[in-house]
Amino acid sequence: MTPKPATPAQKDRLEDPRPRQPHWKTDFSVDWDATDYVSRREFTRFLGLSSAGLAAGTTLVAVAGSLPRQTPQAPRVRLGRVEDFPPGTSQAFEYPQKGQFSLLVRHDDGTFSAFGQKCPHLGCAVYYAPHSRKLECPCHEGFFNARTGDVISGPPQRGLNRVELELRDGEVWAVGGGGH
Length: 180
Prior knowledge:
This protein is an alpha+beta fold and 180 residues long.
């Protein structure tokens, strides 16, 4: 019987006396001698410095958040003459800035109160219901006290934002508050 000629792989094995490397070393070859190893000490130092940097950044954010901020002064806006608002009625007006509405209510006893018109639950527009003398949010049946803006019932968790009013020379002025 004649021996079969050797395949190229068999020739490599016969010619190279060194042991063959596993296939993963040839597929993912890394020159281990040229690779920089990271020691445990270097890795621990890296983790410590990273943690210290994150702690310092968090502290700076906390300090910056706790600093007092200057709130812009609300403008003084003339709403109209007292006789323009009959008792038991309401009037919407833009305050404290364009596009933000507030609601002025004149009560049966002639006193006034005003609140931001945006419901704190989901932002629906609140209106005055004269028959019940309450402010009502039609979206989820939230009711507010028309004199104080406090929640009476419904899903809102907090009251309406109060607008400060001033009566001067027979005129009604919005002078502060009402932020949305």
